[in-house]
Amino acid sequence: MSDISRRKALQVLGSVPAVAGLGWTGAEAAQVHQHAEQARQAAAAEGTAYTPKFFTKHEYETLRLLADLIIPADERSGSASDAGVPEFVDFMMIDQPARQTAMRGGLRWLDRECGERFGKRFVDCTTTERSAILDDVAWPKKAEEKSLTHGGRFFTLVRDLTATGFWSSKMGIEDIGYVGNVPVGAWTGCPDEVLEKLGVSYEGLEKWYETGSEAGN
Question: Is the pLDDT of residue 167 over 90?
Answer without folding.
Answer: no
